[in-house]
Write a structure and sequence with these properties.
341 residues; alpha/beta; Rossmann fold; Helicase, Ruva Protein, domain 3; 3 domains; two-stranded parallel sheet; binds adenosine-5'-triphosphate; binds magnesium ion
Length: 341
């Protein structure tokens, strides 16, 4: 029988057995959807923390929670699109999902997106509502893209007020709320936001034990502890490490079935440096997304070595050694912000 590695590294994992936890985030989204006056929520999280997976999970499961039509729309690669093209693509996506014909705004200039959407909402049966799941929202907030700043965000502000009952929004952004431009802050004013963060301890253990569900690999407690310590519940890094251990053990026929992953096996993967090489891409990504202050603090931590904690005074000392004399508010905040990465 061919054994299947249950760990997924890279693609979003929503709506599958590899999706673990996030009960708090899903609950918060439902609270907003059920609230008579609220109709939008912003999910904030660092790169690779699992934002798109949450949207995929919502897409699959919201219809089981109530009369919702979730529509997933990814803004990645669309940052330079003019407003008309963006709205046409969104209308096409909504029409597809509702199995209706798409409008053609270019050849029918009397039919504007908001009129079309208003008619569509009016035609929905009484209790139904649309939930727009807008991924990578912050790519539009690109200072080089004047188009979005001057047209898309004010337009969205109008849409937010179009129909509180039947039109809901879940925005996903990789940037901290305070790091967004003034125009987006305006848009998000008064909207609930929720951090997509590290997995808690129980969920991290559940994720590691995924291979026990498909009966391919058991885990020794000490191995689980070590992984938890190393990844601190970061879902991508946990999946990655477990996947490597699984490959090492399950590729070779074992005496006992299922075999058990020991602490030694985990350490072997770490020592081989394989895990770092394979995660290179993701780590470069994480590094690339860090503002200057957080990079400086991260490099201090890396120099301190093997997951050693540092207190405020040690940070200050380390920074001074690097020639930094003034501790700005960015630097003061950086250690706190890095906790989520
Ligand atoms: N809830 C989860 N349970 C288990 N693993 C997860 C979960 N969420 C994310 N992962 C892991 O993290 C990886 C990245 O997930 P995802 O693409 O959802 O993150 P993201 O925050 O959208 O990333 P990006 O910033 O690149 O858009 C997945 O391939 C998977 O390995
Ligand atoms: Mg994503």
């Amino acid at each position: 029988m061919i054994q299947k590695n249950p760990y997924i590294t890279g693609n979003p994992v929503g709506n599958g057995p590899a999706f673990i936890g996030r009960a708090d985030v899903l609950r918060e989204v439902l609270n907003v959807l059920k609230h008579p006056e609220e109709n939008a929520i912003v999910l904030v999280g660092q790169r690779r923390i699992g934002k798109t997976s949450v949207l995929h999970e919502l897409k699959a499961n919201l219809p089981k929670e109530g009369a919702y039509h979730p529509i997933y729309f990814d803004l990645q690669d669309k940052s330079q699109w003019p407003l008309e093209q963006l709205l046409q693509a969104l209308a096409n996506k909504i029409s597809d999902e509702l199995q209706q014909n798409s409008p053609d705004f270019e050849n029918d200039p009397d039919n504007t997106f908001d009129q079309w959407l208003q008619n569509l909402l009016n035609d929905l049966s009484q209790d139904k509502s649309l939930v727009l799941l807008l991924d990578e929202f912050d790519v539009i907030d690109d200072s080089g893209n004047k188009q979005a700043g001057t047209t898309f965000f004010p337009y969205l502000r109008q849409l937010l007020d179009l129909d509180h009952q039947r039109l809901n929004f879940v925005f996903v952004t990789g940037r901290k709320i305070n790091d967004l431009s003034q125009i987006v802050l305006e848009l998000f004013k008064g909207i609930t936001n929720k951090q997509v963060s590290l997995l808690n301890r129980d969920d991290t253990v559940k994720l590691i034990r995924l291979s026990e569900q498909n009966k391919t690999l058991n885990w020794q407690n000490k191995a689980i502890e070590k992984i938890g310590q190393l990844t601190n519940g970061h879902p991508y890094l946990t999946q990655h490490l477990c996947s490597r251990v699984w490959n090492n053990i399950c590729a070779i026929p074992q005496k006992t079935q299922p075999p058990t992953a020991t602490l030694k096996e985990v350490e072997k993967v770490i020592k081989s440096g394989d895990i770092l090489k394979a995660s290179d891409n993701a780590l470069e990504w994480l590094w690339g997304a860090l503002p200057a202050a957080e990079r400086l603090i991260a490099s201090l931590l890396a120099n301190a070595g093997d997951a050693k904690p540092m207190n405020h005074e040690q940070f200050k000392e380390g920074l001074q050694k690097k020639g930094v004399q003034i501790i700005t508010s960015d630097l003061q905040e950086a250690p706190k912000k890095l906790v989520d990465i």
